[in-house]
Write a structure and sequence with these properties.
about 120 residues; alpha+beta; SMI1/KNR4-like; 6-stranded antiparallel beta sheet; 4 helices; about 25% strand
């Protein structure tokens, strides 16, 4: 979790969803292929996202271990989870949108189960 998101994001009204805070409190942070990023990792990705996709207001929170996909909150729709294929050409980075973090978490856990069964 990034404790100090950019002021520009706060001015746009960004706050982490309570559901995300709950997941972190429960220490649900590693799902084999997906894992929650440390603050340092998330800050590094946030800086890169701002450079690569300046028109987007993305707050990264999780990374997929086997490719460049990252899970982010969009400042304009903070309840939804955006899957971004980082380093893709501008306009081709969007992979998927989940209605909320619970939908994303459910798929991450299901994938963990299927791949380890």
């Amino acid at each position: 979790m990034i404790k100090k998101v950019p002021e520009e994001f706060i001015e746009k009204g960004f706050q982490y969803p309570e559901s995300y805070t709950k997941i972190i409190e429960l220490n649900l942070v590693d799902f084999d292929y997906w894992y929650m990023m440390s603050e340092e990792q998330a800050l590094k990705r946030l800086a890169g996202l701002r450079q690569r996709y300046p028109e987007r207001y993305l707050v990264p929170f999780a990374r997929r271990d086997d490719d460049d996909d990252i899970a982010c909150f969009d400042v304009r729709e903070p309840e939804k989870v955006q899957i971004i294929h980082d380093f893709a050409s501008r306009g081709y980075e969007q992979r998927r949108t989940y209605e909320d973090i619970w939908e994303w978490l459910q798929e991450a856990v299901n994938e963990l189960i299927e791949r380890n069964r």
